[in-house]
Specification:
Elements lengths: L21 E4 L15 H14 L3 E5 L5 H13 L4 E7 L3 H10 L6 E8 L2 H8 L3 H16 L5 E6 L6 H13 L4 E6 L6 H14 L7 E6 L6 H11 L3 E4 L13 H10 L15 H12 L20 H9 L27 H10 L7 H17 L5 H11 L6 E9 L6 E9 L2 E9 L2 H12 L5 E9 L8 E9 L2 E9 L2 H19 L11
Parallel strand pairs: 1-2, 1-8, 2-3, 3-4, 4-5, 5-6, 6-7, 7-8
Antiparallel strand pairs: 9-10, 10-11, 12-13, 13-14
Pfam families: HCS_D2, HMGL-like, LeuA_dimer
Pathway: Amino-acid biosynthesis; L-leucine biosynthesis; L-leucine from 3-methyl-2-oxobutanoate: step 1/4
Protein name: 2-isopropylmalate synthase
């Protein structure tokens, strides 16, 4: 089947070029289901704007029926974010789901309802407790209801990669007849191999009536580390939409990473002769923004956006790169947003130079108040360090760009002596009111956390405490990660400061703010399409 035959007259995209692959980003929905992740409304709006600027075609903004917060997030993104199709998730068998999705999406310039139901024997028997014929009926009901609210409807076969081929064909045919314009076959549990995914899409395109009138989509999880490979194989099989997330975030081992897929298509165009609408020079900026919002750092050796992705330590490699970068670099750092300039800032650097540095690091949209706060912290840090590197600036600015925080760190004084309890006086700002507390503890960090619990009482349990240096040297800033657990909900917070104890308190406060966002969030069934 030709590449053009199943990409015609789509309600949102019209007739796409034969080589065009649609990028469907689900960072705000599937990505936010990652354990410990949480975004407030302002953070979701920032990410949505960044994703739209990056050039994603479809943005899955959330699951409106899950909670009032999810509904409001989808509604606000639909109202304010331009350029991308805004998508909301719903269950095929949930009339309230589909109605909520339609209502939340109402302000969008272009909108999509994405409904799903499980189709594998395992899921139907033990999760849904439904017979196959009932599932088929719900596919028809759900897609018909969604099509009554928008012309752009996507249907997903949850656990599609483990669904019996004959039944999967029947399900896809039913969804198309009921009005679905995009058909997604997820490898929900990350079980499939590339050969499996290519075979599934080729089979559906060959066997299902009407398959040439819809777009097929791939959504691959990374449990076996095959998410990106399975996605590229799906494209070989005929998929023309890729569902992915920034930094590969998502449940369990995550989703196929947007930046890896896009750069694989671009770099190996000889093997994958397809294009996307992604502005690749912005990949690093968006990756860093997400890492800041979620408090999940990208591992150093992560492809494309990890800090070692273009680093060369071997003498042989360094020599080769100096002579010709192509000897050991298959793409340029600049093509994904890295810059070779590493201007070192110091205490004599002015506000203009600092602003230029922030723009180069991807923080060009900082408002004046946050810029002033960040610049003040930079000057304080520059008085303590001989040289302030890019990593230092990123760490301190990350603390300043967080939005809608109910609790903010104020000040801390500490008395500590070996062999004796440490004592701390801590001040916080809670919803605009200054709160102070004194506490002692077995060491300065324990005392600081005791003071924090006194200033803002809560029952969350400290599940993880980790400290790392932002840069090298004894004067390096400390970056602290704190994980809190409450009623099964996990959140991570990060903080940075030249003072390790202050860094720890900033991280704890950040985690508390995220916990407040997550407390009232519902967790409906069947959330894992």
């Amino acid at each position: 089947m030709s590449a053009t035959s199943h990409i015609i007259n789509h309600p949102s995209f019209g007739r796409l070029p034969a080589d065009r692959v649609i990028i469907f980003d689900t960072t705000l929905r599937d990505g936010e289901q990652s354990p410990g992740f949480s975004m407030n409304l302002a953070e979701k709006l920032r990410m949505a704007e960044a994703l739209a600027s990056l050039g994603v075609d479809v943005m899955e903004a959330g699951f409106p029926v899950a909670s009032r917060g999810d509904f409001d997030s989808v509604h606000q993104i639909a109202q304010h974010t331009k350029g991308a199709v805004i998508c909301a998730l719903a269950r095929s068998g949930g009339a309230k789901d589909i109605a909520a999705a339609g209502e939340a999406l109402a302000p969008a310039e272009r909108k999509r309802i994405h409904n799903f139901i499980s189709t594998s024997p395992l899921h139907m028997k033990y999760k849904l407790r439904m017979e196959p014929e009932t599932v088929l009926d719900l596919i028809t009901t759900g897609n018909t209801a969604a099509r009554n609210l928008t012309d752009d409807v996507e249907w997903s076969a949850e656990d599609g990669s483990r669904t019996e081929p004959d039944f999967l064909c029947r399900c896809v045919e039913a969804a198309i007849k009921a009005g679905a314009t995009t058909i997604n076959i997820p490898d929900t549990v990350g079980y499939a191999t590339p050969e499996d995914m290519e075979r599934i899409f080729s089979m559906l395109l060959a066997r299902v009536p009407g398959a040439d009138q819809v777009i097929f989509s791939a959504h691959n999880h990374n449990d076996l580390g095959l998410g990106v490979a399975n996605t590229l194989a799906s494209v070989r099989g005929g998929a023309r939409q890729i569902e992915c997330t920034i930094n590969g975030i998502g449940e369990r081992a995550g989703n196929a990473a947007l930046e890896e897929i896009v750069m694989a298509l671009r770099t190996r165009h000889d093997q994958y002769p397809f294009t996307t609408g992604i502005h690749t020079e912005s990949l690093l900026k968006v990756s860093r923004m997400l890492a800041t919002i979620t408090s999940f750092d990208v591992q150093p050796n992560k492809a494309i956006v990890g800090r070692n992705a273009f680093a060369h330590e071997s003498g042989i490699h360094q020599d080769g790169v100096l002579k010709n970068a192509a000897t050991y670099e298959i793409m340029t750092p600049e093509s994904v947003g890295w810059t070779r300039s590493s201007l070192i800032m110091g205490k004599h650097s002015g506000r203009a130079a600092f602003r230029d540095k922030l723009k180069a690091l991807g923080y060009g949209d900082l408002d004046d108040a946050k810029l002033n706060d960040a610049f003040a912290r930079f000057k304080d840090l520059a008085d303590k360090k001989k040289a302030v590197y890019d990593e230092d600036i990123v760490a301190l600015v990350d603390d300043e760009v967080r939005d809608n925080e109910h609790i903010r760190f104020g000040a801390l004084s500490l008395t500590s002596c070996s062999g004796k309890p440490s004592s701390v006086t801590l001040s916080l700002t809670v919803d605009g009111e200054t709160v102070e507390a004194d506490a002692t503890g077995n060491g300065p960090v324990d005392a600081a956390f005791n003071a924090l619990r006194s200033a803002f009482p809560h029952d969350a349990r400290l599940a993880l405490f980790s400290v790392a240096a932002v840069t090298e040297g004894t004067d390096a800033q400390a970056r602290t990660t704190v994980r809190l657990e409450e009623d099964g909900k996990l959140v991570d917070g990060q903080g940075a400061d030249a003072d390790t104890v202050v860094s720890a308190v900033r991280a704890y406060v950040h985690a508390l703010n995220k916990l407040l966002v997550k407390r009232d969030r519902a967790e409906p069934e069947e959330l894992t399409a």
